[in-house]
Amino acid sequence: MNTDRVLDCMAEMHSLTRLPRIGWVLAGVSDPESVSDHCFETAIIAYILAQEIDEPVDMGKVLAMALFHEVGEARLSDLPRRSSPYVKEFKRTAETAASRDILHGVAESVLPLLQEMHELQTLEARLVEAAEELQIITAAMYYAKENRGDISEYRRDAAKYDALGIEPAQAVADVVRRRLGEYLGDRPYWELGYQRSATLAGTD
User: Are 21 and 78 in contact (CB under 8 A)?
Assistant: First the structure.
């Protein structure tokens, strides 16, 4: 074992505990969750949902996918959804390359699992993806309940949540959607940061 390489990897992963989820920062949430918080909760949610699935689930794969799915952000940082139109084309390639460099010689067995997750062809991949998106709208519900920031944007995310066939995830998401709506009331959302030149064409 190359202990220096192991420690380097551990140190980079540790940086995710200090990296806030930027979407919450832009929403005005004070002291928002970190990327590590997001990954940990995704793993917890995936584990809980797996208990409600009748099919056999490889929990080792599920937990590895959930815990490592944002590893590339240790070098790329977290990007808000509004950046997607500008970076989506190369973001996956960059994340894959960063993950490979961070995990090199230490946990390379995780890399094919991350690819599997992105392809969404297996039960485990769909379960983790459903858990990740469920974590996001659930966090929005918590922040709305605590009146932290402008969370009205996430009403839309809850409305279009896709459980990818994971029925327990959909059942929980339905409750989250209802409670989020109750906490937000009729508060409108100002879509600041989402307009693009094509959208603005022809306007004053």
Answer: yes
